[in-house]
Amino acid sequence: MATEPQFPIDDALLGKYLAGEASDTEADQVRRWLTDPTNQREFDRFARLWQAAARRPLDDGIDTDAAWQRVWSQMQRPAADVPTPGFVKPLTQPPARTWLGRYGRVAAVVLLGGFGLLLWRVVQPGTSPQPLAMLSATTTTATRQLSLPDGSRITLNRNSQLTYPTTFADSSRDVTLTGEAFFDVAHDAKHPFRVRAGQTIVRVLGTSFGVRVVGDSVRVAVRSGRVRVGAPREVVVLEANQQVTYLAKGDTLRRVRPLDKNNLAYLTGRLTFANEPLAEVVQALRDTYGADIRLSTVGLRRCRLSAEFDHEPLDAVLPVVAETLSLRLRRDGTAWVLVGEGCE
User: Fold this and answer.
1) Selected residue with higher pLDDT from 45 and 275
2) Of all residues in the chain, what percent carry a pLDDT higher than 90?
3) 3-class DSSP state for residue 6?
4) How many other CB atoms are there within 10 angstroms of residue 76's CB atom?
5) pLDDT tens digits, residue range 307-324?
6) What phi and psi values does residue 324 have, to the nearest 5 degrees?
7) What angle do the packed helices 278-289 and 314-324 form, to 10 degrees?
8) In this protein, which residues make up the domain named Protein FecR C-terminal (predicted)?
9) Element (H, E) at 40
10) Partners of 219 in the β-ladder
11) Among 9, 143, 283, 329, which lies 20 to 30 A Cα-Cα from 269?
């Protein structure tokens, strides 16, 4: 008879770690545990389950830690001791024990640890809360200011969408972002604020930060306070004036970097370039103005620009860039094109 793989760390702790809800001490414990190759392989399987469950909507108000404890205690009790609700027809044969093995418990942690309610609804169908009424704010060509039910203020950048409940749940304040937004979160120590962005969960109590989701990458930039960024296999804590980028390809969080304030230019209106490569300047302008800006030759990417702009429209910024670098500016349909020979 096959034995269950050795896994001497608590499943619920792994769920907290992947959700970005583990304390610094708990996260260190997991990282030390992962130095063993066998543990890393088990964790990889766990993470794949987590990623699958991450495609489900955020939980709608369950105290996930307490719910997990209740579910786990019932799973551990002998079958004869588990009460059967009157409206559930008992099985004529006991279910296969393998579901309650290692990966059944992992699935339980994943589903209850931050994303879904499926297992809790099966075990305790009579106590499931009703789904929260949801709102969706969408932008196209302009930014938009939002006020959430808890008093948090959001600036939604162009071509973005934020989904949030009309009233937050009792245990946490959960929203889902596609695109880019800046969050000024009202402090509430008892109700963490969580942003679901791609495959990451950004968790805070009260702070200000920006999140940008583009394709399979997520960038988090913190202006004040502390933010915990949880990816499927890694968690980092950002301090004020720090940023990090998650890449789904390779499932990695790039190293923490100092905050590039140009990342928040759509909010502040200020752009500052200090001997920056033109390729990075153009990308910052694209992100800020939502415009199609191109370089006529690859060699132009190496040109460098030093300039500052304060609440300037794009049709005033681009001529300055062109003149400073002795380039020409032309239109190609809706696109702007900087034309020149390139730089050494």
Assistant:
1) 275
2) 46
3) coil
4) 11
5) 999 999 999 999 999 999
6) -60, -35
7) 170
8) 270-333
9) helix 37-53
10) 212, 245
11) 329
- The residue to which tokens 């030093």 are assigned: 306
Count of other CB atoms within 10 angstroms of residue 215: 9
Annotate 43-100 with DSSP letters as a single string.
HHHHHHHHHHHTTSPPP-S--HHHHHHHHHHHHHS-GGGS---TTSPPPSSPPPGGGG
Q: Which residue has the higher pLDDT, 84 or 37?
A: 37
SS3 225: coil
Rounded Cα distance between 207 and 222, Å, is 8
Q: What is the mean pLDDT of the chain?
A: 76
| AA letter at 67 | A
**CATH code at position 181:** 2.60.120.1440
- pLDDT value for 47: 65
Burial of 19 (0-12, 13-18, 19+ CB in 10 A): buried
Confidence class of residue 41 from pLDDT cuts 50, 70 and 90? confident
Do residues 255 and 139 share a domain? yes
The Cα 120–Cα 132 span in angstroms is: 17
Residue type, 284: A
